C-alpha cells in the first residue's frame, strides 16, 4: 500500500499504535535563504515502528534528521516528540552516524558510558557500567569491554556505537547511514542485528539510507524523497512479515518494492 505525501495520516493510522513523533510543515533553508534544503515535510511516527528515508545525495535527508534530533532548528514548522516540542538535544533521542567516532584513548566500555558521563558526571557513568556491559553483551561484544578501539573491526566499532546510543535508554533512534562504511556482508549482518535490538527495546527508529534493499528489508514504511529541496514523493508501506531475514533479499515481493522505489528515484533524478 502506498500514499501520496498528503495522505500520510491514512498510512500511519493503520498501525494502531500511539504517535511518538510529529513533524508538521517543517522547512529548512540555509545561508539566509540561499539554499532551500527542505520543502514542507509532514511526518508521523508511531511507537515501535521502523521507518526509512531514501533519496538522492544532497536532497536534505541529514538536514531532516538533524532537525528531528534538535541539533538544527527548522526554518518553519513544528517538531513534537512524546508530546513536547523539540527545541534542542533531548535525552529521549539517540543518534548514530556513518562513522562510529569512538575516542581512541577510552576503552569500549568507557566510550559506551560517555553520554552519561557528559550528562551526569563520572559517578553516574560508573554506576551505569553494569547496564553498559549488558548492552555490549546484547550486541555480541562481551569480552571486548576493556579493549581500545584500535582492536575493534569496523563492524565491532559500530556495535559499540549502537551501545553508546542505547545507554541513555532513548525511546527514539535516529540513524544517519550508520553502516554505510562497512562491507556488504557486515552491513547485512548489522542490519539484522539492528532489527533484533529495535524489536527487543521496542524502539521507534528512523533510518537515513541510500540503499534501497536496506530500506525495504528493515522498514515498516519507506519515505521516498525528491532531489533538493527535499519533499516526500511517495510513502510506501512494506508489507513483509517480521522478523525480516536476509533470505528475503531474494523474495520477489521485496524485489517489487525495490523496483518501484528505484523508478521513483530515477524519475526524480531527471525532473
Ligand atoms: N550547514 C549547512 N549550511 C549550508 N548548506 C547546507 C548545510 N548543511 C547542508 N547544506 C546543504 O543542504 C542540502 C541538503 O544537505 P543534506 O541534508 O546533508 O543532504 P543529504 O543528507 O540528503 O545528502 C545540500 O545542498 C547541502 O549542501
Ligand atoms: Mg546525509
Please describe what this structure looks like.
With 271 residues, the chain is α/β, with parallel strands linked by helices. It has two domains: 2-92 and 172-187 and 201-269, Rossmann fold (3-Layer(aba) Sandwich); 98-169, no CATH class. 37% of the residues lie in helices and 24% in strands. The chain is built from ten helices and eleven strands. The chain has helices spanning 8-13, 61-69, 108-112, 114-120, 122-127, 129-138, 154-166, 184-201, 212-218, 252-269; strands spanning 2-3, 19-30, 35-46, 50-54, 76-81, 84-85, 93-96, 172-176, 204-209, 221-225, 232-237. The protein has a seven-stranded mixed β-sheet with strand order 1-11-10-4-9-8-7, with helices on both faces. The protein has a four-stranded antiparallel β-sheet with strand order 3-2-5-6. A hairpin with a 6-residue loop joins strand 10 and strand 11. Helix 9 crosses helix 10 (252-269). The longest helix is centred in the last third of the chain and has 18 residues, at 184-201. The two termini are 25 Å apart. The relative contact order is 0.18. Adenosine-5'-diphosphate binds at residues 30-31, 35, 37, 55, 57-63, 228.
Amino acid at each position: 500500500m502506498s500514499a501520496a505525501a498528503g495522505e500520510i495520516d491514512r498510512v500511519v493510522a493503520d498501525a494502531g499504535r500511539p504517535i511518538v513523533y510529529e513533524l508538521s510543515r517543517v522547512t529548512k533553508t540555509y545561508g539566509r535563504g540561499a539554499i532551500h534544503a527542505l520543502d514542507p515535510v509532514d511526518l508521523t511516527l508511531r511507537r515501535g515502528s521502523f521507518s526509512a528515508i531514501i533519496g538522492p545525495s544532497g536532497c536534505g535527508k541529514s538536514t531532516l534528521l538533524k532537525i528531528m534530533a534538535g541539533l538544527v532548528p527548522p526554518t518553519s514548522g513544528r517538531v513534537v516528540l512524546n508530546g513536547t516540542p523539540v527545541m534542542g538535544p533531548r535525552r529521549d533521542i539517540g543518534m548514530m552516524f556513518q562513522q562510529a567516532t569512538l575516542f581512541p584513548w577510552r576503552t569500549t566500555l568507557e566510550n559506551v558510558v560517555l553520554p552519561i558521563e557528559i550528562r551526569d558526571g563520572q559517578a553516574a557513568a560508573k554506576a551505569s557500567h553494569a547496564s553498559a556491559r549488558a548492552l555490549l553483551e546484547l550486541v555480541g561484544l562481551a569480552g571486548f569491554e576493556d579493549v581500545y578501539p584500535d582492536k575493534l573491526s569496523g563492524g565491532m566499532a559500530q556495535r559499540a556505537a549502537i551501545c553508546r546510543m542505547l545507554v541513555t535508554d532513548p525511546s527514539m533512534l535516529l540513524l544517519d547511514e550508520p553502516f554505510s562504511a562497512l562491507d556488504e556482508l557486515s552491513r547485512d549482518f548489522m542490519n539484522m542485528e539492528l532489527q533484533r535490538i529495535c524489536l527487543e527495546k521496542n524502539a521507534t527508529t528512523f533510518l537515513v539510507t541510500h540503499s534501497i534493499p536496506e530500506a525495504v528489508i528493515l522498514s515498516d514504511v519507506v519515505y521516498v524523497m525528491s532531489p533538493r529541496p527535499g519533499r516526500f514523493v511517495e510513502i510506501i508501506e512494506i508489507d513483509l512479515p517480521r522478523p525480516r531475514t536476509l533470505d528475503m533479499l531474494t523474495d520477489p515481493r521485496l524485489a517489487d518494492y525495490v523496483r518501484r522505489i528505484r523508478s521513483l528515484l530515477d524519475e526524480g533524478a531527471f525532473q
